[in-house]
Amino acid sequence: MNQQNTKKEYPILGRPSAEVAGAFSADKVPVVRVEQNIKMSCPFCQSAEFVRRGTRKKKHEVVQLYKCGNKDCQKTFTDSSVKGRRYPLKVIIDAVSYYNLGFTREKVCGIIAQLHKKVRPEPETISRWAEEYAHLCAYHKMRSYGLQIYGPMEVLEVVTMAHHQLYRYRYHKAKILLMLQDYKNRNFYPLKEYLDAIATETPHQLDRRHGGYGQNELRQSAS
User: What's residue 95's pLDDT?
Assistant: First the structure.
């Protein structure tokens, strides 16, 4: 009987701790943490005083509702970054990240469908997001040059490491190679050698009796 191929067709960008511990169930709707936006204010009276007032479930996410603290207003509102947006912020970030790694728009749509259930944006949407958030992604301008050096599955060095807790070491190989093409950055070659060696030479797979993780946990986190 042929064994099913479980090898990932895309690199894992998220943190391994939640995957290993099962902190998030597969069917849980992600909540957008808009309360971190320190510039948020009531859109009706511009008051900076407000309190949380439950949540509202949208098609792909749950957003936080707020009640204005101004006695003359007291209206309910959501953060402006959430209003009018069809897809959750996490979906947009993942889509732009995988696109900038070099995957085609169509492939990114498939990856998003695997990562986020019942969510499959169109290729045109991926292009629009890439252009809209290009000013936040320094690698956007270097994407075409990076593809000449590495394929989408090779551009990142991704290793799960254990130092009392699991974490995912990620190293963007194309970025540093493109940086070193500039003569003024020639002195950074030792940095590249150091980053290349971390995945293979850093001791981290410690036995659990010494506070580390065993091979079973490491295999689970890498799957």
Answer: 92
